[in-house]
From TrEMBL:
Species, as recorded: Suillus luteus UH-Slu-Lm8-n1
The protein, known as: Polysaccharide lyase family 14 protein
Matching PANTHER family: DISAGGREGATASE RELATED REPEAT PROTEIN, PTHR40124
InterPro entries registered for this protein in UniProt: Polysacc_lyase_14
GO MF terms, alphabetically ordered: lyase activity
Domain (Polysaccharide lyase) ranges: 72-290
Pfam family membership, one: Polysacc_lyase_14
Keyword terms: Lyase
Length: 296
Protein backbone atom coordinates (compact mmCIF):
# COMPACT_ATOMS: atom_id res chain seq x y z
CA UNK A 1 0.00 0.00 0.00
CA UNK A 2 1.49 3.36 -1.04
CA UNK A 3 1.73 6.11 1.58
CA UNK A 4 -0.32 9.27 1.02
CA UNK A 5 2.90 11.21 0.39
CA UNK A 6 4.01 8.87 -2.40
CA UNK A 7 0.49 9.07 -3.85
CA UNK A 8 0.73 12.87 -3.89
CA UNK A 9 4.10 12.62 -5.66
CA UNK A 10 3.63 9.61 -8.00
CA UNK A 11 6.72 10.50 -10.02
CA UNK A 12 10.27 9.22 -9.80
CA UNK A 13 12.06 12.58 -9.54
CA UNK A 14 11.43 16.31 -9.64
CA UNK A 15 13.20 19.65 -9.21
CA UNK A 16 11.29 21.01 -6.24
CA UNK A 17 8.05 20.19 -4.46
CA UNK A 18 5.84 21.41 -1.61
CA UNK A 19 3.19 19.82 0.58
CA UNK A 20 0.94 20.53 3.55
CA UNK A 21 1.11 16.83 4.42
CA UNK A 22 1.95 16.53 8.13
CA UNK A 23 5.66 17.23 8.74
CA UNK A 24 5.59 14.80 11.65
CA UNK A 25 6.01 11.99 9.13
CA UNK A 26 9.65 11.10 8.56
CA UNK A 27 8.98 10.48 4.87
CA UNK A 28 8.69 14.21 4.28
CA UNK A 29 12.28 14.90 5.36
CA UNK A 30 13.51 15.53 1.81
CA UNK A 31 15.61 18.46 0.64
CA UNK A 32 13.47 18.81 -2.49
CA UNK A 33 10.12 19.14 -0.65
CA UNK A 34 9.08 22.34 1.13
CA UNK A 35 6.79 21.81 4.14
CA UNK A 36 3.97 24.39 4.10
CA UNK A 37 1.06 25.04 6.49
CA UNK A 38 -2.50 24.80 5.18
CA UNK A 39 -2.92 28.58 4.98
CA UNK A 40 -3.64 31.14 2.28
CA UNK A 41 -0.44 33.20 2.29
CA UNK A 42 2.16 30.41 2.17
CA UNK A 43 0.15 28.57 -0.50
CA UNK A 44 -0.24 31.63 -2.70
CA UNK A 45 -4.05 31.61 -2.51
CA UNK A 46 -5.62 34.43 -4.55
CA UNK A 47 -8.76 35.43 -6.45
CA UNK A 48 -10.97 34.02 -3.70
CA UNK A 49 -14.70 33.71 -4.42
CA UNK A 50 -15.90 36.10 -1.72
CA UNK A 51 -19.35 34.56 -1.30
CA UNK A 52 -17.72 31.30 -0.13
CA UNK A 53 -15.52 30.28 2.80
CA UNK A 54 -12.69 27.78 3.18
CA UNK A 55 -12.16 27.54 6.92
CA UNK A 56 -9.40 25.32 8.29
CA UNK A 57 -11.05 22.73 10.55
CA UNK A 58 -10.38 19.36 12.14
CA UNK A 59 -12.18 16.96 9.76
CA UNK A 60 -14.27 14.09 11.13
CA UNK A 61 -12.78 10.59 11.27
CA UNK A 62 -12.98 8.61 8.07
CA UNK A 63 -14.77 5.28 7.72
CA UNK A 64 -11.34 3.62 7.60
CA UNK A 65 -9.24 5.61 10.09
CA UNK A 66 -5.49 5.73 9.57
CA UNK A 67 -2.57 7.45 11.27
CA UNK A 68 -2.01 9.22 7.93
CA UNK A 69 -5.48 10.83 7.88
CA UNK A 70 -5.31 14.64 7.76
CA UNK A 71 -5.64 16.46 11.07
CA UNK A 72 -6.50 19.78 9.39
CA UNK A 73 -8.48 20.46 6.24
CA UNK A 74 -10.29 23.17 4.32
CA UNK A 75 -14.02 22.67 4.77
CA UNK A 76 -16.32 23.23 1.80
CA UNK A 77 -19.99 23.73 2.61
CA UNK A 78 -22.74 23.04 0.08
CA UNK A 79 -26.07 24.34 1.46
CA UNK A 80 -29.34 22.74 0.40
CA UNK A 81 -30.25 24.11 -3.01
CA UNK A 82 -26.72 25.35 -3.70
CA UNK A 83 -25.28 25.27 -7.16
CA UNK A 84 -22.55 27.23 -8.93
CA UNK A 85 -21.08 30.36 -7.26
CA UNK A 86 -23.12 32.62 -9.58
CA UNK A 87 -26.53 31.21 -8.56
CA UNK A 88 -28.85 32.44 -5.80
CA UNK A 89 -27.56 29.90 -3.27
CA UNK A 90 -23.80 29.46 -3.81
CA UNK A 91 -21.91 26.52 -2.36
CA UNK A 92 -18.48 24.94 -2.18
CA UNK A 93 -15.31 27.03 -2.29
CA UNK A 94 -13.26 28.78 -4.93
CA UNK A 95 -9.81 30.33 -5.39
CA UNK A 96 -6.51 29.84 -7.23
CA UNK A 97 -3.15 28.85 -5.79
CA UNK A 98 0.38 28.50 -7.11
CA UNK A 99 2.13 27.18 -4.01
CA UNK A 100 5.01 28.79 -2.08
CA UNK A 101 7.06 31.54 -3.75
CA UNK A 102 9.84 29.15 -4.77
CA UNK A 103 7.36 27.07 -6.79
CA UNK A 104 5.65 30.13 -8.28
CA UNK A 105 9.05 31.44 -9.38
CA UNK A 106 9.79 28.24 -11.30
CA UNK A 107 6.33 28.32 -12.88
CA UNK A 108 6.83 31.94 -13.91
CA UNK A 109 10.18 31.00 -15.45
CA UNK A 110 8.34 28.62 -17.75
CA UNK A 111 8.40 25.19 -16.11
CA UNK A 112 7.18 22.76 -18.78
CA UNK A 113 5.97 19.94 -16.56
CA UNK A 114 4.42 19.86 -13.09
CA UNK A 115 2.20 17.80 -10.82
CA UNK A 116 -0.30 19.17 -8.30
CA UNK A 117 -2.51 17.22 -5.92
CA UNK A 118 -4.63 17.08 -2.77
CA UNK A 119 -6.80 14.76 -0.71
CA UNK A 120 -10.57 15.05 -0.52
CA UNK A 121 -13.23 13.41 1.66
CA UNK A 122 -16.98 13.75 1.08
CA UNK A 123 -19.11 13.40 4.20
CA UNK A 124 -20.80 10.12 5.04
CA UNK A 125 -24.20 9.88 3.36
CA UNK A 126 -23.15 12.22 0.55
CA UNK A 127 -25.68 12.58 -2.28
CA UNK A 128 -24.06 13.08 -5.69
CA UNK A 129 -27.06 14.28 -7.74
CA UNK A 130 -25.92 14.95 -11.36
CA UNK A 131 -22.39 16.08 -10.58
CA UNK A 132 -20.08 18.85 -9.45
CA UNK A 133 -16.66 20.41 -9.93
CA UNK A 134 -13.44 19.64 -8.06
CA UNK A 135 -10.00 21.28 -8.09
CA UNK A 136 -7.54 20.76 -10.94
CA UNK A 137 -4.62 22.47 -12.67
CA UNK A 138 -4.79 25.57 -14.85
CA UNK A 139 -2.55 27.85 -16.88
CA UNK A 140 -2.22 30.21 -19.79
CA UNK A 141 -1.01 33.68 -20.72
CA UNK A 142 -1.24 36.30 -17.96
CA UNK A 143 -4.76 37.11 -16.77
CA UNK A 144 -6.26 35.11 -19.66
CA UNK A 145 -5.34 31.99 -17.66
CA UNK A 146 -8.18 32.80 -15.22
CA UNK A 147 -10.87 32.87 -17.88
CA UNK A 148 -10.86 29.35 -19.29
CA UNK A 149 -14.13 28.03 -17.81
CA UNK A 150 -17.87 28.61 -17.90
CA UNK A 151 -18.38 27.98 -21.59
CA UNK A 152 -15.81 30.56 -22.67
CA UNK A 153 -14.88 30.42 -26.37
CA UNK A 154 -12.86 33.63 -26.87
CA UNK A 155 -9.08 33.36 -26.47
CA UNK A 156 -9.26 29.66 -25.68
CA UNK A 157 -5.80 29.36 -27.27
CA UNK A 158 -4.48 31.44 -24.34
CA UNK A 159 -5.56 29.22 -21.44
CA UNK A 160 -6.27 25.73 -20.15
CA UNK A 161 -8.18 24.44 -17.13
CA UNK A 162 -8.39 20.76 -16.19
CA UNK A 163 -10.52 20.61 -13.04
CA UNK A 164 -12.08 17.32 -12.01
CA UNK A 165 -15.75 16.42 -11.65
CA UNK A 166 -17.83 13.92 -9.78
CA UNK A 167 -20.87 12.59 -11.60
CA UNK A 168 -23.89 10.47 -10.72
CA UNK A 169 -23.00 7.71 -8.21
CA UNK A 170 -19.57 9.29 -7.63
CA UNK A 171 -18.06 8.49 -11.01
CA UNK A 172 -15.01 10.68 -11.64
CA UNK A 173 -13.69 12.50 -14.70
CA UNK A 174 -11.43 15.35 -15.81
CA UNK A 175 -13.43 18.30 -17.13
CA UNK A 176 -11.00 19.76 -19.64
CA UNK A 177 -10.89 23.20 -21.21
CA UNK A 178 -8.01 23.19 -23.72
CA UNK A 179 -7.43 25.18 -26.91
CA UNK A 180 -10.26 24.27 -29.27
CA UNK A 181 -8.89 22.25 -32.18
CA UNK A 182 -9.37 18.86 -33.78
CA UNK A 183 -6.12 17.49 -32.38
CA UNK A 184 -7.22 18.03 -28.77
CA UNK A 185 -10.75 16.82 -29.43
CA UNK A 186 -9.54 13.57 -30.96
CA UNK A 187 -7.01 12.90 -28.20
CA UNK A 188 -9.37 13.67 -25.30
CA UNK A 189 -12.40 11.86 -26.73
CA UNK A 190 -10.29 8.72 -27.17
CA UNK A 191 -9.63 8.39 -23.41
CA UNK A 192 -11.33 5.31 -21.89
CA UNK A 193 -13.65 4.20 -20.48
CA UNK A 194 -15.81 6.98 -21.97
CA UNK A 195 -15.32 10.62 -22.93
CA UNK A 196 -17.64 13.18 -24.49
CA UNK A 197 -17.81 16.80 -25.61
CA UNK A 198 -20.25 18.94 -23.60
CA UNK A 199 -22.51 21.69 -24.92
CA UNK A 200 -20.62 24.31 -22.84
CA UNK A 201 -17.38 23.47 -24.65
CA UNK A 202 -15.60 21.53 -21.92
CA UNK A 203 -14.70 17.88 -22.59
CA UNK A 204 -15.57 15.17 -20.06
CA UNK A 205 -12.47 12.98 -20.08
CA UNK A 206 -12.41 9.40 -18.77
CA UNK A 207 -15.88 9.31 -17.22
CA UNK A 208 -15.96 6.47 -14.68
CA UNK A 209 -12.19 5.91 -14.71
CA UNK A 210 -12.58 5.84 -10.92
CA UNK A 211 -15.37 6.18 -8.36
CA UNK A 212 -15.34 8.34 -5.23
CA UNK A 213 -16.47 6.79 -1.94
CA UNK A 214 -18.07 9.02 0.72
CA UNK A 215 -16.50 9.00 4.16
CA UNK A 216 -12.98 8.07 3.04
CA UNK A 217 -10.01 10.12 1.88
CA UNK A 218 -9.19 10.03 -1.83
CA UNK A 219 -5.71 11.13 -2.92
CA UNK A 220 -5.56 12.98 -6.25
CA UNK A 221 -2.44 13.86 -8.24
CA UNK A 222 -2.56 15.50 -11.66
CA UNK A 223 0.29 16.06 -14.09
CA UNK A 224 0.47 18.48 -17.01
CA UNK A 225 3.30 18.39 -19.54
CA UNK A 226 3.15 21.40 -21.83
CA UNK A 227 3.60 20.88 -25.54
CA UNK A 228 6.49 22.34 -27.51
CA UNK A 229 5.24 25.20 -29.67
CA UNK A 230 4.07 23.91 -33.03
CA UNK A 231 3.90 20.31 -31.81
CA UNK A 232 1.13 18.17 -30.31
CA UNK A 233 3.25 16.51 -27.63
CA UNK A 234 1.54 17.66 -24.43
CA UNK A 235 0.31 15.20 -21.81
CA UNK A 236 -2.41 15.10 -19.16
CA UNK A 237 -2.18 12.42 -16.47
CA UNK A 238 -4.17 11.62 -13.34
CA UNK A 239 -3.52 9.30 -10.41
CA UNK A 240 -6.16 8.28 -7.87
CA UNK A 241 -4.73 6.81 -4.65
CA UNK A 242 -1.46 6.21 -6.47
CA UNK A 243 -2.99 4.44 -9.48
CA UNK A 244 -2.79 6.05 -12.91
CA UNK A 245 -6.38 6.18 -14.19
CA UNK A 246 -6.07 8.69 -17.07
CA UNK A 247 -3.15 9.42 -19.38
CA UNK A 248 -3.87 11.49 -22.48
CA UNK A 249 -1.04 12.22 -24.92
CA UNK A 250 -0.72 14.23 -28.13
CA UNK A 251 -2.24 17.41 -26.69
CA UNK A 252 -1.83 21.11 -27.42
CA UNK A 253 -2.00 23.14 -24.20
CA UNK A 254 -0.53 26.27 -25.77
CA UNK A 255 0.30 28.01 -29.01
CA UNK A 256 2.62 30.62 -27.47
CA UNK A 257 5.75 30.29 -25.28
CA UNK A 258 4.20 32.86 -22.92
CA UNK A 259 1.57 30.31 -21.86
CA UNK A 260 2.65 28.76 -18.56
CA UNK A 261 1.40 26.32 -15.95
CA UNK A 262 0.04 28.52 -13.12
CA UNK A 263 -0.98 26.05 -10.41
CA UNK A 264 -4.39 24.89 -9.22
CA UNK A 265 -7.89 26.21 -9.83
CA UNK A 266 -9.09 25.15 -6.39
CA UNK A 267 -12.82 25.21 -6.97
CA UNK A 268 -15.72 22.97 -6.04
CA UNK A 269 -19.51 23.30 -6.31
CA UNK A 270 -22.59 21.36 -7.39
CA UNK A 271 -23.27 21.97 -11.06
CA UNK A 272 -23.93 22.98 -13.71
CA UNK A 273 -25.88 26.15 -13.17
CA UNK A 274 -29.50 24.91 -13.03
CA UNK A 275 -31.55 23.75 -10.07
CA UNK A 276 -31.57 20.09 -11.15
CA UNK A 277 -27.82 20.05 -10.31
CA UNK A 278 -28.28 21.51 -6.82
CA UNK A 279 -27.40 19.82 -3.54
CA UNK A 280 -30.55 18.22 -2.05
CA UNK A 281 -29.44 18.92 1.53
CA UNK A 282 -26.72 20.67 3.52
CA UNK A 283 -23.48 18.79 2.79
CA UNK A 284 -19.77 19.16 3.52
CA UNK A 285 -16.47 17.99 2.03
CA UNK A 286 -12.90 18.43 3.22
CA UNK A 287 -9.68 19.15 1.30
CA UNK A 288 -6.20 18.63 2.68
CA UNK A 289 -2.56 17.67 1.95
CA UNK A 290 -2.26 20.21 -0.87
CA UNK A 291 0.91 19.43 -2.79
CA UNK A 292 2.79 20.13 -5.97
CA UNK A 293 6.11 19.67 -7.72
CA UNK A 294 8.02 21.10 -10.66
CA UNK A 295 9.20 18.17 -12.75
CA UNK A 296 11.11 20.16 -15.39
Amino acid sequence: MFSPLSQLFPISSFQLGFTTFSPSHASIARLDVISVPLADLPLGVHKITRSLTHEVVCPPPSLHPSSDDPQLAWEARYPKGSCSPTTEIPGGLGFYLGGPKEIVSLLDQGAKEAVFGYRVMFEKGWEWVKGGKLPGMYGGIGDAAYRCTGGRQNDRCKCFDVRLMWRYDGKGEIYAYLPMNETNSNALLAVPPYSKANPDYGVSVGIGAWTFEPGVWTTIAQRVKLNDIGRADGELQLWINGECVIHAKGLIFREDEASHIKGMHFQTFFGGHKSDWASPKDQRAWFSDVSGAIIR
